[in-house]
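Whiteboard transcription, Tuesday session. T.W. wrote the structure tokens on the left side:
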């Protein structure tokens, strides 16, 4: 792993450095920044660590939010992104570990490889306990990044697939007889992947990925509703409407027809 100089905490900082976590991630810097600014995914992708989050302020600079841990502990956390230095600093403003700072530096080492160095600083930790506290922080961050990497890689894969499929234009697909179909099933129509399933005895085709950030939507709706596992957005697969209030809706879904005994999907546009 290449060596990089890690910038020390701000001048005058009295916080003890308790440990460092380092790892090479198979993503680019764009995905890393996107992930750092994405406060909303915490209770969904990291449900073993967070049960709820309430954003107090957010922007290109970062975000500040009130969080509830899986154990019910309330904290206020702030993340500030510094693109010029390729780093973001997370501070606990209130709650357990108040005053702690986590400095993450990201060093691109390939087209889709980023070397991250995460330094942990915590107030009031005696020198004899720092190794133990640092190890606990590192163990937590290993699990968080395992979960984040799965999401970031899946998003990148879908972006790549969309580019690779550009130009293909099968706007009408004959799937076969109703009795021969094994539902739910996935099918490509006009360069996009859809899930065909039955909702209340009606055949319905809806996008396989969330219109927000391409999170994988489940194959089996519950009462006609699917929930994105990354941010909790819910969609009605028949109308395409977002049921949780976000300004997103499913793009035009293909028309499902029965011609004779054949199931046919046709792009709307």
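and on the right, the sequence the group agreed on:
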């Amino acid at each position: 792993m290449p060596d990089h100089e890690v910038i020390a905490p701000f001048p005058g900082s009295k916080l003890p450095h308790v440990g460092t976590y380092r790892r090479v991630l198979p993503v680019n810097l764009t995905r890393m920044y996107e992930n750092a600014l994405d406060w909303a995914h915490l209770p969904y992708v990291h449900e073993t660590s967070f049960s709820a989050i309430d954003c107090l302020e957010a922007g290109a600079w970062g975000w500040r939010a009130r969080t509830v841990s899986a154990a019910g502990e309330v904290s206020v956390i702030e993340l500030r992104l510094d693109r010029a230095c390729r780093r973001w600093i997370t501070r606990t403003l209130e709650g357990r570990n108040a005053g702690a700072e986590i400095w993450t530096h990201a060093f691109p080492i390939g087209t889709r490889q980023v070397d991250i160095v995460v330094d942990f600083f915590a107030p009031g930790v005696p020198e004899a306990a720092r190794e133990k506290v640092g190890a606990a922080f590192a163990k937590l961050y290993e699990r968080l990044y395992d979960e984040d990497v799965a999401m970031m890689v899946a998003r990148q894969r879908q972006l790549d697939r969309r580019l690779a499929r550009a130009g293909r234009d099968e706007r009408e697909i004959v799937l076969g007889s109703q009795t021969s179909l094994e539902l739910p099933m996935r099918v490509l129509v006009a360069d996009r992947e859809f899930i065909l399933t039955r909702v209340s005895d009606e055949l319905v085709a809806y996008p396989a990925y969330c219109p927000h950030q391409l999170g994988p939507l489940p194959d089996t709706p519950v009462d006609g509703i699917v929930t994105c596992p990354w941010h909790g957005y819910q969609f009605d697969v028949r109308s395409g409407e977002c049921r949780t209030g976000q300004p997103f809706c499913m793009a035009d879904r293909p028309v499902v027809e029965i011609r004779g005994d054949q199931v046919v999907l046709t792009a709307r546009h």
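Someone added at the bottom: Helices lie at 29-37, 42-45, 130-165.
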